[in-house]
Amino acid sequence: MTDQHQRPKGETFSDAAFARRIVGNLSAAAHHTDEAVAERLKAARLRALEAHRPERGTLARLFSAVRAVCSLRPVLRQSVAMAAVVVLVLAGDHWTTTSLVLELEEVDAALLTDELPIDAYLDSDFPAWLQQDSSS
Amino acid sequence: MVAARLLLLIACLFFSALATARVMPLAAPVWAELNARQHEVLAPLVDDWDGMEPVSRRKWLGISDRYDRLSADEQARIQRRMRDWVRLNPDERSRARMQYRAMQKLPPDRRSNLHAEWERYQNLPPEGRRPAEATPAPRRPGAALQGQVDIFR
């Protein structure tokens, strides 16, 4: 669709100018219409205005996106808090388990490679005997 | 609107769980998932591996990582003892660890002589191994052991 309109004498003008001209003609003609027709025209104009959506610019789109996010803010906050709790609990569990594994790994590796056999560490009399032997 | 909020909530929980799962493996590998070197080092555990707790399996994987840094004698010892160790019950393993830690606190000269002391202790008749003074019966589990452990502190 073109935005240039031909005037009767061959001149061209833009959509906006053309619209202004139509508005002027309609306004002038409205003075000569009867009340019922004027009312119908008014109602039609209002409906047209309601249906009219001007093309939105980048700023307007950004603003509406921010408004949409703001309307979700309470649920977003709840979700982030819940996710943080889940992550913290799992991270704490992971840290505890890892520490336990490392501790067991160190002690067991040392115990199993030690010169003393496992039985020496299972015999509960041996430490007491050692103490008695050293003090006598 | 309510549906959108619910969807957002579910998405947040899903992604947080997914992120955590990536950081923390939920289970240790089964025997078939170990590599050739781990199979070789942990061979004495083949029959017990899949029935072990994940924590134990991860511990043994850590020990297998240290294995190549051990001396030949230590490697031979750990190979001999692995199976016996996993067949102990949890209380026995716990008691052995506690006694090991306590003995590490002995003075260095006594600690270096422990093997000879153990040999000497084993050659004694059973009545000679017990301390001369009778210790009172423990009132709670582990009380007697705790007393013995304390002597090394």
Task: Write the topology of this structure.
The complex is a heterodimer of chains A (136) and B (153).
Chain A: E1 4-6, E2 12-14, H1 15-30, H2 35-51, H3 58-71, H4 73-113, H5 118-122, H6 125-135
Antiparallel strand pairs in A: 1-2
Chain B: H1 2-23, H2 36-41, H3 54-66, H4 72-87, H5 90-103, H6 108-112, H7 114-123, H8 126-129, H9 143-150
Could you describe the 3D structure shown?
The complex is a heterodimer of chains A (136) and B (153). With 136 residues, chain A is mainly α. Chain A has one domain. Chain A has six helices and two strands, in the order E-E-H-H-H-H-H-H. Chain A has a two-stranded antiparallel sheet with strand order 1-2. The mean pLDDT of chain A is 82. Chain B is an all-alpha fold and 153 residues long. Helices cover 64% and strands 0% of the residues of chain B. Chain B has helices spanning 2-23, 36-41, 54-66, 72-87, 90-103, 108-112, 114-123, 126-129, 143-150. The longest helix of chain B has 22 residues, at 2-23. Chain B is elongated and about 80 Å long. At the A-B interface, helix 4, helix 5 and helix 6 of A face helix 1, helix 3, helix 4, helix 5 and helix 7 of B.
Could you write a compact summary of the structure shown?
The complex is a heterodimer of chains A (136) and B (153). Chain A is mainly alpha-helical and 136 residues long.
